[in-house]
Structures are given as C-alpha cells and as structure tokens.
Amino acid sequence: MLGGMMLRRLRCVPSLVRPPLKFFSYSSSTSRSTSSVKDSAAAISKSAAAGAADALEDDEELLESVVSVRPVTFPVLLEPRVVVYDGVCHLCHRGVKWVIQVDKQAKIKFCCVQSLAAEPYLRLCGLEREDVLRRFLFVEGPGLYHQGSTAALKVLSHLPLPYSALSSLLIVPAPLLDAVYDHVAKRRYGWFGKADNCLVLNDTELLDRFIDKDEMTGK
C-alpha cells in the first residue's frame, strides 16, 4: 500500500526533463519570398544607380553645351598708335626705320600684317590682310584708324618738329593724295623689291618697337 502511494506521488511530480530544441527553418515559400525581396532590393538599387548615371550624364551634356556656347575668353589689350604694315616690303621697311629713328619718344609702335598679333587690330577695324597690303593701317586709338596717305600724315603728326608740320597736308583732299599713294603702292615690289620674311628680323635692334616681337623671335 505504501509503495502504491509513493508511486502515485512520483507520477504527480512534474517532469524535469526539458523538451528537445527545434531549429526554426524557413519553409520553401518563405525562402522564395525572401529571395524575391532581395531581388526587388537589387532591382531598386540598379534602377537608382541607372537614374543617377543618367542624371550625371545629362549634367555633363548640359555643362558641355554651356561651355561650347560660352567659351572662356580673355580680353586682348590693344595698344594705341600702332602701324600695321607689309613686313616684306622693302619700301615699307625703310619708312618704318625712318620713323623709329625720328620718334625719340617712342610714341609709335609697329606690327607686321603677316603676324598673328595683327589680327585683333584688323578685326577692330573690320579689315582683311589684303586691305592692309594695299594701304597700310595706323590705329591711332579706340574707334580711330586711318589708311593710306591719311595714315602716313597722321603718323607724322605724332613726330617732333619739323616733321609734324607735314601733317598740315591733311587739308588736301584725301582722294588726290591716295591716288599718288596707290600708284606707288601697286609698283613697290617691282621698284624696291620684296623679301621672303619680315625685314625687321634683319634689324633686331628695332624689335623693341614691335608689338609682335615675341612672335617673330619665337619666344
């Protein structure tokens, strides 16, 4: 009887044995769902990256278009009282040498029309090189330029006396003076000769008066 009672008490004591652990695992449907989430995230990332790349490309194209429309330029500083002349003409070169010799204050500067430095002056006056080969150019200042006989007399006006007095010939009608100028200019090569290069390179002591000095000397 006592044994039966003890047996019943033992049956009433809670079991101290822990249940076996179970590892939680995704079912096949859960795995597919997770995979689809990952794929969606990857697709979104790719789409975002593609959108960013397209936006960057659009920005680059816009920048290129702006740069192409508005290039960066620097102002060209033009000097006043510049004679632009035919640098290979012997007669013209003699005239330049004479002006440099007389112009002790170095008021007048020079530039060969064959050089690149002459281009801003030609553009300023709306002239081509052929125009200056027919009649030399004297750019006296902003909006003030002369050609032919008038240019020669204007150059004389900046020289000291008695040479500046010759500028009084400006009262003579320009067509008459230009007729004489053009007659000589058309025959200058035949009468005085023509060089292959700018003649001032043979007189390097004159180069300090030339705005295209660096170009001609290759500096």
TrEMBL record:
Signal peptide segment: none
Pfam families, sorted: DCC1-like
Record InterPro entries: DCC1-like (IPR007263), DCC_oxidoreductase (IPR052927)
Molecular-function GO terms, alphabetical: protein-disulfide reductase activity
Domain of life: Eukaryota
Annotated protein name in UniProt: Thiol-disulfide oxidoreductase DCC
Organism this protein belongs to: Linum tenue
